[in-house]
Amino acid sequence: MKDKTIKTKQDFYWHFVDTYLDLLTHVAIAYEDKTFRDMLLEIKLYLDEKLKLNVNGEIIETYVTVLQECDK
Question: What is the Cα–Cα distance from 21 to 43, expressed in whole angstroms?
């Protein structure tokens, strides 16, 4: 039986924001502030839901696709 690969289109910038917020969790002074940490975790939960895939399974590859119109 052939394996099925599912392609899901997601906006690159949401992944950028998610990665940036992950970096903020490693900045001790910001993460020690309880109010900031709680707000950060709330945003992370929102992003996790936004980027959640519809099908369970291992992600085998992630890449960026650039679509471009040709000059006329």
Answer: 9
